[in-house]
Each structure stands twice: as C-alpha cells, then as structure tokens.
Amino acid sequence: MLVPELPAEIRELKAKVRQFLEDEVYPLELRIAQRGSIDVAEVDVMRKKARAAGFAMLNMPPDQGGIGLSMVGQVALEEESGKATNGLGFAVVDRGPRELLEITTPDQAKRYVAPIVRGEYREAWALTEPGAGSDLAGLQATATRAGDDWLLNGEKWFVTSEGSPGVYIVAAMHEGEQLLFLVDPDSPGLEIVRTPSFLHDPYLDHHPEIVFTDCRVPEANRIPATGDAGAKEWILVERLFIAARCCGAAERLLDLATDWAKEREQFGAPIAEYQGISFPLADSLTELLAARLLTYHAAHAFDTLADRKIVHGKVSMAKLFASEMAGRVADRALQAFGGRGYMLENPTARFYRELRVDRIWEGTSEIQRLVIARGLLKRGAAPYLGWE
Ligand SMILES: Cc1cc2nc3c(=O)[nH]c(=O)nc-3n(C[C@H](O)[C@H](O)[C@H](O)COP(=O)(O)OP(=O)(O)OC[C@H]3O[C@@H](n4cnc5c(N)ncnc54)[C@H](O)[C@@H]3O)c2cc1C
After folding, report:
1. What's the pLDDT tens digit per position in 170-191?
2. Ligand 1 pocket, 235 CB below 6 A?
3. Which of 18, 67, 327, 354 makes the best surface tag, with the fewest CB within 10 Å?
4. Which numbered atom of ligand 1 lies nearest the CA of 132?
5. The domain 8-117: what is its CATH number?
6. pTM value?
7. Which of 1.20.140.10, 2.30.29.150, 1.20.1440.60, 3.40.920.10 would CATH assign to domain 228-385?
8. Residue bearing the CA closest to ligand 1, atom 43
9. How far apart are CA 385 and CA 9, in angstroms?
C-alpha cells in the first residue's frame, strides 16, 4: 500500500484539532500580531485546554500516558497543528518524548521523561555547535571522565526550547565517540550566553546559545545509546513532522488565498477570473496534494517498513519536497493578496516568514538531497519507489 486510508477515529481527532485551532488559536494569533509579542500566560491557558481536549502525548505508549498512536496518525494531527502560526501548534498537539524514552534507562525515564509526559516541562536537544551544523560528525564539545561524573565543555547553538526547558539532551565527544547526556538546566557550568532574535519571531520557541564550562553531569545521566544512533530517530521523526506541518500550512494558505481571490474585485471582476491569479493557485493545490501523498507515504513506511535506511530516504524526500512546496505556496498566496498579504495581521505574511526555517532545521534541503542521492546511488531507485 502506498498511502493508507486514515482510520475513522483519526479523522475524528483530526477534525477536533482543526476546530480547536479555529476557536482558540486563530484569535490568539491575531492578538499576538496586534501586540507584536506572545503573552506566555495566555498560551498556557490555551495549552491546558488542548491537553484537556486530549491532543497531548498521544504518541506515547499506554503505560506512559499515551495511546501509542501510529506515525500516520501522528502525521495527520501534526498536519493540523501546522496551520497555526507563531509556533502555537506545538502547544496544541503536544507530542511526547517517545524517542527519548526509547534511548533512556528506566531510571532516567522516571526522572526526566515522566515529568514531560505530566506536562511539567519540555526537553531541549543540544546538538548543533558554531562549527558543526550540517556535519554533526564534527562536534567539538567534549565529555571527560571525572571520577563518577563527567565534565562537559563546549558551545551549543540554536537550542530550541519553549521558555526554560526541564532538561537538555547534550551531545559531546569522548574518545572519538558521540555521547548523549541529560543535563539539568541549573547545573553549575551551564550558561545561556545569548538568545538571538529570529525571522519567525514572535515565536513560541526560543533558540539560545549555551556554553558548558566544566559542567558536571553524573554517570547516571549518560544515555546508554551513543549520540549518532540516539539522536537519529529524533531527527527522523522531526523531519517527518516538518513535512506534515508544511502541508497543513499550505492548506490554510491556499484556502485563504482562494477565498480572497473570489471576493476581491479589480477592473470590474473578481481577481480569481484572471489566470495570473488562478493558475498559481492551481499549481499550489497540485503541489500540495503531491507533498501530502509523499508525507503520508513516508509515515506509512515508518510504521511498516523494517529497512530503516529506506524509511530515512523517504522521510528526507517528504521533508525536502513539502518544505520547498510550502515556501512556493506562501509566496503565491501573498501575491494573490497584494498589499494585504504583506500585513502581519494576515496569516499569509506570517507564514511567508515562518516557513523559511523548514528548509533549514533538522537538515537543510541540501542535506536531504545528500541523503536521497546517497541512497539512490547505493541501492538504486526501486526500493524507494516500490509497493510494500
Ligand atoms: C530556528 C532554528 C532552530 C533550531 N533548533 C535546533 C535544536 O533544537 N537543536 C539543534 O541541535 N539544532 C537546532 N538547529 C540547528 C539546525 O539543525 C542547523 O541550523 C542546520 O542543521 C544547518 O546547520 P548550520 O546552520 O550550521 O548550516 P551549515 O551546516 O553551516 O550549512 C550552511 C549551508 O551550506 C550547505 N551545506 C552544508 N554542507 C553541505 C553539503 N555537503 N553539500 C551541499 N550543501 C551543504 C547547507 O545546506 C547550508 O545551505 C536549529 C536551527 C534553527 C535555524
């Protein structure tokens, strides 16, 4: 099966998330646009309502407060969350730290994963460094043994976190191997040195730069999986979710632009009657459907395919195509709105800025092409195209 049907219960849940966005999130977005900043307390109220509505932690196994939702199901919900701007979708469909659970010891899971599931705090992954972005093999941060503890030294950039995270997952080198550590934010030697502004601000997440100077971490906080394998699954899932959110964003953009094109009249006719407006919208719908099929196809492969290398290739294709598609759709939608599309109170203007990062984070478009090309050259096209 190339693309599965969505089960009725997932369709129902998806419709509920969509309704929640319309009732709770879109009015909140507008207030943020008018104020120019995010009111954290207001977002917290919205997040609690979303949690009460049952949208959080669904990917976690039942004994961890979730329902073990399939990747196809998760993608369906993530798609809806992508319709929100300002990163608010992250607070609506609050996905649990499943990949962290899978690589931590039972004791670590109890201390660090359980509080996230209970909604007490979030985790933040600190992999990227000033000198190592696309090429994470070039990490410079070090972990040195000091009795029963480890000392971390180095600098991490773009550490995405909403407010103050409860735990950092930090990658550092030890004797040529990447290790991962669970680091408490108040550990001596951990310092947030800068919180730069980004093109998508005001945004729910911040992306500070953190310096570690002889930051002491107990051996009990070293994750058993080594860095590369440990972080790989997290990166894979994040890539798929970026693709899903891009599809959701593009759908909202297309709906907004289509409605506007039918309503706005110039030269005595709705602008939708001019092919200069309707053809780009037709291109957007076509590309959105293609991206959507590819994203659900990759999610289905994630759920069913044993060969993870093929799954990685398909997820990279989905992330590459969907993020580039969303950029084009936003650009065309903005053009259809004319000057009104350039006003930040219009979601189109906000998406135009915010979607740009989807071609960068969790591996740039070039890195996705690298993954796809390597797979193609090694295995040929057939395993990536086949029916499973
Ligand atoms: C808003 C934001 C949030 C982020 N959140 C996190 C986070 O939570 N945790 C974390 O660890 N990281 C995070 N990142 C980091 C992100 O994953 C990196 O920015 C990304 O992987 C690219 O690395 P870089 O910025 O160092 O660019 P570089 O690696 O320096 O790349 C610069 C340019 O060179 C190109 N390039 C590099 N190598 C090749 C190649 N072999 N072939 C062709 N082109 C190439 C790239 O595609 C890019 O266009 C975040 C980044 C941003 C912007």
Report:
1. 999 999 999 999 999 999 999 9
2. no
3. 67
4. 26
5. 1.10.540.10
6. 0.97
7. 1.20.140.10
8. 366
9. 29
